[in-house]
DNA sequence: CATAGAAATATTGGATCCAATATACAATCC
DNA sequence: GGATTGTATATTGGATCCAATATTTCTATG
């Protein structure tokens, strides 16, 4: 187990730090699906007692990232193909709507920020950074929707499937294809065409979902 | 503070029991918006230590039902009018989709169960039971969508605004209107018209949202 | 040697105690 | 009398200890 550095600026408590570190480790795939998470082990890694660890695990369970069983411990949750398909459908629905709501509020600075992320995504060669940059690209546009509750749900649903997306991006032509789709979405945004940007976002997500599912079917047999 | 009995069948731990009891108290409005929740006080009510209470509060915070501040404690979260509007929009979006996905799977037994809930809703005079029965009516149809992730999100978003809906149902013509709309939704379901059922569900939720917002504007000034 | 039962170990959930700090209130000074 | 400072209290977050039980290991027996 390895953990990334955590942004402690708004992590008031030890439980927050542990939660955020575990969350990142799970969504980035550093903790394998089905891997056992023992409270004592994690506590020693972070130099804290088991109390804040338990709080962090409890939160992760609420978000569906792990499952726990008394006396047996927690394991990183895996998703069935059906669950993955459902989450992609869900994302397509709400992110298309968020995009539609965002377009009228997009200003020059936001578009330029999104362009920068798109370029960074195309240039990036490290698979471990694709997910993060992809998120930043989409979030930078989504934020203009001024819909915090939607965005919270976008984040939660993305958290659940990010690990799988990463695998798919690494092993298929997902990156160049996503790059082209980002390009088209951004063009629609620049034209101020909310309906088109929304539709392209929906297709972008459904495409990635289909590609991932066929990839996983091959992998899982 | 009063708490309803908790279904302990799947509440393995004390933390689960406290969580479920507090959740219900909040969504049913028994705990007033802004009310202070002190760990020690809750612990004594449930005859447990503060540890499981803290875990329960942590989960509630993750779901947005309370907010906590170190050394100051937790308070029941209130929603601004804007936040309420956003959650209704969100519900309209996803519940309309769930309804659309459910209609092809509706069988006779399910429709009869939904009819029973619709009738019970119309007959019910206790405002405290409207919310629960309304939920049962909608859930009984939604479940046919076989989309657990969607349903989880339906539940989470409904949890956030149920307390306000309750007030609106009590003080406006919300109940008879909702009754008529339930009737129409059910008719569309019986005809197997997914598009119509979806549209009516969307309008049903947006109507309730608009009605609630005007009610709250009058109340809050 | 394989298997069944018993003891040892591992692991979680909860209780009690300690540390840190925000708030309330009283004492003091102008 | 009002403002300011200091202390006492309230309250949370975390550490340590205890209880309960699942898992593993060891031993005895056929």
Automatic annotation (TrEMBL), chains A, B:
Assigned keywords, A-Z = DNA-binding, Transcription, Transcription regulation
Q: Which domain of life is it from?
A: Bacteria
- List GO molecular-function terms, semicolon-separated: DNA binding; DNA-binding transcription factor activity
Q: Which residues form the HTH gntR-type domain?
A: 12-79
SUPFAM superfamilies reported in the protein's UniProt record: GntR ligand-binding domain-like, Winged helix' DNA-binding domain
Sorted alphabetically, which Pfam families does this protein's record hold? FCD, GntR
Q: Does the keyword Nucleus apply?
A: no
Q: Which SMART domains match?
A: FCD, HTH_GNTR
Can you say what this protein is called?
Answer: DNA-binding GntR family transcriptional regulator
